[in-house]
Amino acid sequence: MTDHFALFGEARRPWLDPERLKEKHFARSRAEPPGAELNEAFRVLSDPKLRLHHLLILEGADLAAGRPVPAAVADLFWNTGTILRETESWLHKNGNATSKLAHAILLPARTRLEEKLEKLEEELRANYETEIARLRQIDSDWKSTGPNELGKLIELSDSISYLTRLLERTKEGRFRLSVA
């Protein structure tokens, strides 16, 4: 497996300064035509979720399925699932509506769903930012503890992955409502 950190001359760490990484990528791209490997390394290292996963693989962490959902996101699963099911139900009803009156009757429910989705997205974003702050904290301790913190890092990686996916699904739900 290619060590994307090594391609950029970076130490294996949970957090990298995005601006510094971007500057290194642009400098390398100006010096030589960027190849697929360099672009892939930049893509992975730029994304906290992908960077953590890559770091954990390089450090030999066991990332087999079956880990419990981190407590930081467990409740959000339930809330997100409920609102997304309501959204799917509304979209189904709206798709089956055959008259302008039927569509008009569904509009207030649509507005409530849009508000719920917006509030949910704000909550998910706030949780994501909290996890990114935790990531930075773990990174500040990384030099002294190093890979001894893999358990915490795996849980954090899972949280960030789940939050990213929940945010994507929420945005998709908002978009689908907006075009319905």
Give structural attributes.
mainly alpha, single chain, 180 residues
Question: What does this 3D model show about the protein?
Answer:
The chain is built from seven helices and no strands. The chain has helices at 4-7, 18-31, 36-46, 48-58, 71-96, 100-145, 150-179. It is elongated and about 65 Å long. Helix 6 (100-145) packs antiparallel against helix 7. The relative contact order is 0.14.
What is this structure's SSE topology?
Layout: H1 4-7, H2 18-31, H3 36-46, H4 48-58, H5 71-96, H6 100-145, H7 150-179
Return Rg in Å. Answer: 21 Å
Largest sheet: none
Would you tell me the structural class of the helices and strands?
mainly alpha
- Supply the number of helical segments: 7
Strand content: under 5%
Distance, first to last CA: 44 Å
Shape: elongated
Mean pLDDT: 92
Parts with pLDDT < 50 across at least 5 consecutive residues: none
How much helix, percentage-wise, in residues?
Answer: over 70%
H-E string = HHHHHHH
The strand count comes to 0
Query: What number of structural domains do the residues give?
Result: 2
